[in-house]
Amino acid sequence: MSTTLPKRRGTVAAGETLSQRQTVLVMIGLMLGMFLSSLDQTIVSTSIYTIANDLDGLSLQAWATTAYLITSTVSTPLYGKLSDIFGRRPLYLIAIIIFLAGSLYAGSVHSMTELAIARGIQGLGAGGLMALALTIIGDIVALKDRAKFQGYFMSVFGISSVLGPVIGGAFAGSSNILGFDGWRWVFFVNLPIGLAALTVVFMFLHLPTRHVKQKIDYWGAAAITLAIVPLLLVAEQGRSWGWTSGNSWLCYGLGVIGIIAFLFAERRAGDYALIPLRLFSNITFGLSSLLNFIIGVGMFGAIAMLPMYLQLVKGLTPTEAGLMMITFTVGILFGSITAGRTISASGTYRVFPIVGTAILTAAALVMSFSLHWDTELWVPGLIAVFFGVGLGFCMQPLTLAMQVSVPAKDMGVGTSTAAFFRSMGGAVGTAVFISMLFSLAADKVASGLKNAMANPDYLKLLKDPAIASDPANAKLFEFVKKGASNDSLNDTSWLHGANAQLTQPITDGFAQAIDGVMLTAAILTGIAFLISFALPNRKLTDPSSGAAPADADALPVH
What we know:
Elements: H1 20-42, H2 48-54, H3 61-86, H4 88-106, H5 112-140, H6 143-172, E1 176-177, E2 180-181, H7 185-188, H8 190-204, H9 218-241, H10 246-269, H11 283-313, H12 318-324, H13 326-346, H14 351-370, H15 378-404, H16 411-453, H17 456-462, H18 465-469, H19 474-482, H20 500-532
Antiparallel strand pairs: 1-2
């Protein structure tokens, strides 16, 4: 039973809705916050090499990414649960403040160790930005309009994933901006955006004060940290450590212990658990969680392959590759907005994960058979459109499905769990697929060079004194002498400066390796496609419309 709280100026009492102007203003603040979170996942990728060189810590560069990934993933379910207890607004404001503090520190560091710490602080804030934004929309927007609004948020995610590499490359390529090293603006750019989001949310988002007397699941939080941190560490560092090394086995073991401990802790905690296990008895919630993870693995891993292809095989710069991915943004804009508007009008969401996973599977298959060393650039550009459409059809409807499958008191948990499983899948997919890429590439490149050596024309070029004396070919000849291996493929910066005819077996080997990775991605998204048919075929119901839910699995939204 809902209660109406006394209304003060600027505050929305329980059971009331924001005006259209208030909703738009709050939406702007929330979208800015989500933009910060998603932008920071990609903006560093094209600038980290410059940053690491400037801070004399090239060997430590991976930790700057790993620290952000770990803290953002671990903190996501914590924000969801705490927001159900203490309210969305204070937790969202805290998330922005933590993120801004981490950004200011990251732009001021003088070592890679400091940068890793700063990125970890950023991740602690970022964990709440995306999940809480979607949760707040669930609180303030009626169900009939929620899908449409959440579709706009998914569009922000797509736009930032493309702008990130472009902006990062531009800042890293500038030696000085307003008295600071250009790369420092990769982090300083967050400050004005974050302050704008903080101001808008503080001024215009006023929800009923909430403080539910409930225990906080400290044991569950500790256990999930023990489970996730080692697994993300090995996912990110496994290729450099070796997947069967002592460090990797230690991470596997700790991860398994953490998962078992988490299940025991959540079972013991009952309703006040960080992620109540009772929620997974709901078929919609359980299947949507599984789909979010599988799609995260297959889809985000596949998306990582397109920029790899554009840079390793076609020779584009990171900034050029980012601009090429604008077609991906077009696709995700179309997919998320179309899905949102259709779901708002019809109340039916099941068709979109089915169609979305089918499109993703088809796009991955086409990519695995069509991307070669001499493929025209319009081909990956077109494939990126379909990846975007598939992503737009899957992410937002599955988040909505998880929201409406839980009671109102668990709205934060439901939304953050969707983001959590998708983030975990994306982290695992990206790390494993990149590792798979270089393992396959070592064999494909070695085979390609062996065949090339049997070609008299190739040998003639290789022995040409003019080519051999060209400094641009020095590392190529060194590579040919050592042979292809995981170690020799770690540095490919020389690849597109050397003689194009001599490097053709190498770029062809990378293209074949990417084809193999994409075939694996297609199998995973194909599994998600089959699973999506098991989602209940029911309309979303809103109690305000007077419609009763079909059964317990179509819970109303409050």
